[in-house]
Amino acid sequence: MGNELKNVCNEVVFESVFNNHAKDIKRFIFSKTRDTDLAEDIVQDTFVKIWEDCEKVVYDTIKSYLYTIANNLFLNIVKHNKVVDNHQQGYKKDSTNESPEFLLLEEEFLIKLEKTIENLPETQREVFLLNRIEKMKYKDIAEQLGISVKAVEKRMHGALLVLREKIGNV
Questions:
Q1: Tens digit of pLDDT for each residue in 59-82?
Q2: Where are the domains of the chain?
Q3: Which residues neighbour 162 within 8 Å (Cβ) at sequence distance 6 or greater?
Q4: What would the pLDDT profile of 17-52 be if each residue is shown by its tens digit?
Q5: pTM over 0.90
Q6: Domain 97-170 has CATH 3.40.50.300
Q7: 1-95 and 97-170: identical CATH topology
Q8: Domain 1-95 CATH assignment equals 2.60.40
Q9: Closest CA to 145 of 159, 162, 124, 161
C-alpha cells in the first residue's frame, strides 16, 4: 500500500500532487511572465508532462521536478520568442545585402539550431539556455539549480559538444 501512495500514475496521487502544487507553480511562472493565460498554459503543460512520464517520476522529489519542468517550458518559450524576434528583425532591415539563398540558409540554420537545442537532455538544455539566452553566469546558474559550478560546467560542455556535432561551432 505504501508504494501505491507514492505512485504518480495513480490518479488519486496525481490529483493530490496537482491540488498541492499547481497554484504555487502558477505563481512562480506568473512572476516570470506577468501573463495569466501563459502561466496557466505552462502549468497545464507541466502536469501533462508529469502524467506522460509518471512511471519515471520519483514522488519524493516531485516538487522540484515540477518547478524544473515549468521553468524549462518557460525558458523554451523565451528562447523561441527571441529567435522569432531576431528573425523578424532581420527581415525588417530595409537594406539587406544578403541574397535570398543566404536568407533561406540562415532560416534553415536557425530551425536546425532550435531543434538541436530542444533535443538536448533536459539538464544540458536548461544550463545552455540560462547561460546563452538568459546570459546568466555559471555561479548564478549553480545557485538557481542547487548544483555545483562544476556540474554546470560539465552540463554546458556536454551541450556544446552535441551542438558542435550536429551543427558546427557554436
A1: 888 888 898 899 889 888 888 877
A2: 1-95, 97-170
A3: 116, 120, 124
A4: 999 999 999 998 888 888 889 999 999 999 999 999
A5: no
A6: no
A7: no
A8: no
A9: 124
